[in-house]
Amino acid sequence: MSLNSPRWVKRFEISVSILTALVTMLSAVVAWRAAIAGDAAGNADFSGLAASINQQESVTLNSSKTYQQYRAFTSYFRNNELGNALANDLSSASSDERRIMERDRALSLNQTIVDQYFFETRYLNPDGTYAVQRQLSEAEAEDAQRKDIDPEPHFTEADRLRVKSNLMVGLLIIMAGSLWFYTMASEIKHAIRYPLALIGLLCMMVGLIGTFIIEVL
Amino acid sequence: MTTEASANNPVEQPLAEGQESESTKRLVSILIATTTIIAALAAFLQTDAGGKATQANRNAQRYAIEALGTRAAGQSQADYGWYGATQTWNDLDTEASALNNAGDTAAADRIIKIRDKINTLSPIMADPYFDASKSGYPDLAGFEADTFLVKATELSERYTAAATLNNGWNNKANTYIVHLTLLAVALALYGLSTAPDNWTRWVFIGAGSALVLITLGWMAVTITTPVDVTSEMAIETYAKGYGLAWRGKYADAITAYDQAIKLEPNYANVLYERAGAHFSLTEDKLGQQPKEAEAELRLSAADYEAARKAGKEDGSVNWNLGWTYYLLGFFDESVTASRRALELDPNLFAVRCNLGVTLLANGKLDLARKEYADAIKIVTDKVIAAHNENKAPPSSLWFYLNSCAADVDSLDRRLNNQDRFWTQAPPRDLIADTPEIRAEIKRLISDIRTMLVSLEYTNQVPGERPTANITAFQFATHSKDKDGNFLYDDQDRAIYDDPLPDATFPSGTKKVGILFNYQGMVKGEKEIWKVYRNGREDPSLRVVSDWQLGEAGSAVLPISYTYSTVFSFSSGEYTVELYIDNYLVQSGTFIVE
C-alpha cells in the first residue's frame, strides 16, 4: 500500500485525529494533577505557618514564664545566701550582734521558703544555681508533644509540591507542541506530514513519560 | 468538466471558492495550534510566578512571626538581666554602702559577697557587659543587641524583602493572566473566522494575529523585567548596623550602613537609620556647639531625603526631616516636611508643635499661633473624646506635651544665650528676635506646661486661672551649727541661711529650701511642685498637696535627700515649678556643682 493511496491517507488522517484527541485529554489530566499539587502546596504552607505560630508562641511563653520564675529564684538566692552568711558569721559575733544576726537569719530563711513557691525547685542545681536552659528545653519538649512546633518539614513539602506543579504545567507546553505537530500533519497535504506526526507522537510520549516520572518521584 | 480541468492544472487556474475556504481553515487551524503553544507557555510562566509569589508571601509571614517571637523571648531574658539581676545587685550595693556609712563594715562585707555572687546569675552581669569598677549598671543595650535585637531586625528586614518579592512576582503572575486572557480572545477570533465565507474572516484572522503578536511582545517584556530582590548581605549588614546604633556606637553603625548602601543603593530603611545615626552623633554638640553639629545634621537631612526618594514616604521620615531642617535653620524646608507629615496624619500633635516652633523661630508669629492653637485643639478634642467614653486621655499626650514645652524652652534658652547640653534649637543668628516673639515664647511655655499638669491631674483642660501671685523663688541651704547639725527654731521649723544670690550649691548638698512670698491664695487649692534636673523631671522630688497656709505671707518649701544616708543632689541644673490649681504660677532655677 503506497503512502499516496487514498486508503493509507484515510487511515493516517483518522490516526492523527485520534492522537490529537488523546493529547488533548492527556493535557487535561496533566493540568488537573498540576492543580492538585498546587493546592497541596498551599495546604502545606498553611500547616507550616500554623506550626511557626505554635513554635514562636511556645518560645515566647516559655521564656516569659521561665525568666519570671528565675526572678523568684534570684530572691531566693539572695535570701538563702544572706541566711548562710549570717550563720557563718554567728560564731565571731558579740552577744548583742548575735541576737540581731539570728533574727535576720531567721527572717531570710523564712523568706526563702516563700520564694520557693514561685519557681520550680527541681531546676535547682547542686551548686545552688538554677538550670534556666534546662527548664526552657524541657518546656519546649513538652510543647512538642502537645502540638506541632516544627514548621520546616511542611515548608519543605510545600516547596516540593510547588516544583511538581510547575513541572506539570511545563509539560503542558510539550503537549501543546504535540498538538501543533498533529495539526500541521493533518492540514499539510504533503509527505512531510508523516515526520511531523511522528514528532507530535514523540512529544506526546515525552509528556506522558514526564507526567509519570513527576508523579512517581 | 470544469472540475477535471482544475484538477489537471491546479497552478494555472484560480482557486475555486470552496478550495480557498479550505486553505483558510487550514491556516486558522495552524494559527490556533500555535496560539495554544503560546498560551501553554503563558500558563507555565503564570504558575511559576504565582508559585514564587506564594512562597515569598509565606516566607514574609514566617519571618514576621519569627521576628516577633525572637524579640519577645529575647526581651524576657534582657528584662530578667536588668530588673532581676541588675536591680538585685544594685539593691545589695546600696545596702552595703549604707552599712559602710553607718560603720558596720562586717555586715557591709557580708552583703558585698552576696552582691558579687549575683554576677553569676546572668550573662549581662559578666564581661563584656559589666565592669563593676566602672559602673554599677551593665551595658543593657549591648546585651540586647547581641542576644536578640540584631537577629530580630534581620528577620524584620527579611520580612520586608520577602513582602517586596511577593509583590513583584504577584505583579508578574497577574500580568500573565492578562496575557492568557488576550490569547483566549485571539483564539475566539480565530474560531469566528471560520464561520463567514467572505472577506470578514480576514478581519478576524488579522485581529487575532495582531493580538497574539502584541501579547508575545508584552510577554517578552514581562519575562525580562527583573523582580526586586534585596541582597542578603545588605540585610545582614543593615541589622549589624542597627545593633551598633542601638548600643550607641553611631559612627560604627554609619560604617555598617555605608556598606549596606553600597550593596543596595536604594535601601530605604538603611538610609532612614543612617540619617538617625548622623543625627544622634550631633546630640552632644547640639546644645553648646551647634556649629560643630551642622555637618552631621546636613548629612542626616540628606539621608532622610534619600529615604523618601527610595520610597519611605511616611510620617516618621517627614517628622524627623522637618526637625533636622529646623535645627539647621532651614525653616522653609522644615515647614514643607512637617506639612507633608501632617498631610499623612493631621492628628500628629508633636509635628504640629514642631511646625509651630519653626514658624515662631522664623518670625511668622500669626502662623505659629495658629499651629499651636490647632495643636491644643487636637489635645482638647482627645481629652473630651476620652472623657465622653469614660476613659483617661492617652498617656502619649503627656509625653508629647512635655516635648512640645521643652522645644519652646530650648528656643528661649538659645535666644537668651543660656544653652545647656540638652538644648535643641536653630543657630542663634537665624532666629527672629522681637519683643513679641519673646513674649509669645514665655506665654507658650506656661500654657503648655499648665495643660500638661491639668491633663495629668484632672484628665481635663485647664479651668479658670487662680488668683495666686507668687514672687520669684530664692534658694537657700538649711542652717547648721558648728558640729554640722541642722538648726531648727523653737517651733521645730528649719532655719535657713540667707538665699544664695547665684543659687549655686556645692556638691554633696542634701537639702535646698525654696523661699517665696505669696498672696491671693485660697486654702485647699491644689499645690504641685515639679523639679527638673537637666531638663528632665525627677519624679521622686515631686510634691503634691493642698494649700494649707493663709491668703498671703512667706513660705519655704524644702526639697531634700536627708532621709538617705547614701544619696545627695547630683550635679546639674535644677528647675523648680509651682502649679496652683494646675496653673504654672512660678518657676526658678538653682545649680548643684
SSE arrangement:
The complex is a heterodimer of chains A (217) and B (593).
Chain A: H1 6-89, H2 95-115, H3 132-146, H4 152-187, H5 193-216
Chain B: H1 2-8, H2 17-101, H3 105-118, H4 140-193, H5 200-224, H6 232-246, H7 250-263, H8 268-282, H9 290-309, H10 315-328, H11 331-344, H12 349-361, H13 365-388, H14 396-415, H15 435-458, E1 469-470, E2 474-476, E3 504-505, E4 511-519, E5 526-533, E6 536-537, E7 543-546, E8 553-560, E9 572-580, E10 583-592
Parallel strand pairs in B: 3-10
Antiparallel strand pairs in B: 1-4, 2-4, 4-8, 5-6, 5-7, 5-9, 9-10
Helix pairs in contact in B: 2-3, 2-4, 2-5, 4-5, 4-6, 6-7, 7-8, 8-9, 9-10, 10-11, 10-12, 11-12, 12-13, 12-14, 13-15, 14-15
Helix content percent band of chain B: 55-70%
Helix/sheet category of chain A: mainly alpha
Are there runs of chain A of 5+ residues with pLDDT below 50, and where?
A: none
Number of strands of chain B: 10
Distance between the termini of chain A: 45 Å
Provide mean pLDDT of chain B, rounded. 91
Average predicted confidence as pLDDT of chain A: 93
**Helicity level of chain A:** over 70%
User: Which percent band covers the strand fraction of chain A?
Assistant: under 5%
> Biggest interface between protein chains, with counts per chain?
A-B, 53 and 46 residues
Regions with little confidence, pLDDT below 50 for 5+ residues of chain B: 1-12
Using only C-alpha atoms, the radius of gyration of chain B works out to: 37 Å
Radius of gyration of chain A: 38 Å
How would a crystallographer describe the biggest sheet of chain B? 6 strands, mixed
